[in-house]
């Protein structure tokens, strides 16, 4: 049971770090191939969690429960000529709605709709816009669950349990997962040498990636 808790925390820490790393690499000079390659490697790891779904465009459309980050929202818009085009809907901050609506140049229209997030729902402007759109998100990884049975007062891994859920991270993260889980276990059992050794190994690995 403790392992499953450690596994979930370790996976989420690695997953969330992707976005900090990607932001850092993308800020570096574009001509630097090393940083470009590092950024692409992170994108590849995030790509595993991309999910494109049909989505009803209308006020208060609920986001999928596993949404971690929105990548893109599009909608098919029919023009007066009868032609249908796919439009990317721009995301704005909820606090900026008034500012956007004050100028004809930035005001939302059916040809240039916008959306904002409130209480885990998407709201679109102009409000009369509706239809079937496409939502591309980064979804949260499922919680790892390694089932077990108790035998002679010891917990034994049970691979036959249908509820099993393995890690969803890229295979290259195996070492990082081991290090993080060891670090969490060391803190829990108050083995600070183990926690310190795992922490040092994690620091070395992180520095090597960002050099």
Secondary-structure map:
Blueprint: H1 2-26, H2 33-47, E1 50-57, E2 61-62, E3 67-78, E4 84-88, E5 90-91, H3 97-101, E6 114-118, E7 121-125, E8 131-139, E9 148-151, E10 154-157, H4 174-188, H5 192-210
Parallel strand pairs: 5-6
Antiparallel strand pairs: 1-8, 2-7, 3-4, 3-8, 6-7, 9-10
What does this structure look like?
The chain is α+β, with helices and mostly antiparallel strands and 211 residues long. It has 5 helices and 10 strands; from the N terminus they run ααβββββαβββββαα. The strands form 3 sheets. Strands 1-8-3-4 form a 4-stranded antiparallel sheet, with no helix packed on it. A 4-stranded mixed sheet has the order 2-7-6-5, with no helix packed on it. Strand 9 (148-151) and strand 10 (154-157) form a beta hairpin.
Quick description:
The chain has five helices and ten strands. The chain is α+β, with helices and mostly antiparallel strands and 211 residues long.
The proportion of residues forming helix, as a percent range, comes to: 25-40%
Mean pLDDT: 82
Uncertain parts? none
Alpha carbon gap, first and last residue: 37 Å
Q: How do the SSEs run, as a string of H and E?
A: HHEEEEEHEEEEEHH
**Based on DSSP secondary structure assignment, what is the total number of beta strands?**
10
Structural class: alpha+beta
Biggest sheet strand order reads 1-8-3-4
Q: DSSP helix count?
A: 5
What is the oligomeric state here?
single chain
- Cα-atom Rg, whole angstroms? 23 Å
Biggest sheet descriptor: 4 strands, antiparallel
Estimated share of beta-strand residues: 25-35%
Shape: elongated
């Amino acid at each position: 049971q403790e392992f499953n808790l450690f596994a979930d925390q370790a996976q989420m820490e690695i997953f969330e770090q992707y976005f900090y790393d990607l932001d850092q690499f993308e800020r570096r000079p574009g001509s630097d191939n090393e940083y470009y390659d590092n950024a692409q490697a992170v994108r590849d790891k995030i790509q595993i969690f991309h999910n494109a779904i049909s989505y009803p465009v209308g006020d208060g459309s609920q986001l999928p429960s596993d949404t971690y980050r929105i990548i893109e929202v599009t909608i098919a818009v029919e023009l007066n000529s009868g032609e249908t085009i796919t439009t990317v809907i721009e995301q704005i901050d909820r606090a900026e709605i008034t500012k956007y609506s004050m100028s004809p140049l930035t005001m939302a229209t059916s040809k240039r709709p916008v959306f904002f997030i409130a209480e885990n729902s998407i709201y679109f402007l102009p409000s009369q816009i509706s239809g079937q759109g496409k939502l591309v998100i980064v979804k949260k990884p499922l919680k790892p669950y390694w089932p077990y049975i108790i035998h002679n007062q010891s917990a034994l891994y049970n691979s036959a349990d249908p509820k099993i859920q393995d890690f969803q991270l890229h295979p290259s993260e195996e070492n990082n997962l081991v290090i993080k889980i060891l670090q969490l276990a060391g803190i829990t059992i108050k083995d600070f040498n183990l926690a310190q050794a795992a922490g040092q190994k994690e620091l070395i690995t992180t520095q090597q990636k960002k050099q």
